[in-house]
Predict the 3D structure of the following.
Amino acid sequence: MLVTIEGIDGSGKSTLHKALGPYLADLDPVITCEPGSTWIGEAVRRAIREHSDPIAEALLFVADHAAHLREVIKPALGEDRLVISDRYIDSRLVYQQVTLDGFIPDPLSWLRAVHHGWTILPDLTILLAVPVSVALERTGKRKKGEHFEQEPVLIKVHENYMQLVEEDKTRFLILDGTLPPEHILKVAGETIRFRYDELKKKKKK
Ligand code: TMP
């Protein structure tokens, strides 16, 4: 089963992702992330740092996704493992929709087309939702200052996530990212456990 964790920078997504491994240790999950699970992830990180061409940057994110699928996700799903990825396709749909605005006529359609026919959609996506003001307060403390972390970008990214949820209400579980981390962990962890058990039962039938 493929579970993805999504949210704007500062939503608490990475904290949740880190805690899920130990919380679900009995299920022996494969804990992975985008960008960065393959060597292409290093190129992506460099592109982000150097704030290079938005089309080149988008294609690097897609290249990282292709390698991630082939090297990590598909082999794990082939063994019926539980895979939990910090960011996945939705991150491209929401972030690159913003960064490609003005460079490509219809970024969302272009992004969907570039993934079409080879990607795998998640079984469950946990979206941590927080007000942009809270996210900025948190990222300000980290002082990373990537171009994705600017307020106007995050406001649009948040709206784009909500639009994706509108289009596919069954795949998303939205959690309030301002709740205490241990509370978020329990709801997310138990939902994953329940869905994974259900899937295994269905496969046995
Ligand atoms: P991270 O902070 O979750 O590691 O992600 C790094 C940044 O990359 C974050 O600001 C979101 C951005 N990003 C995209 O713009 N597109 C993508 O496809 C992915 C995976 C991340």
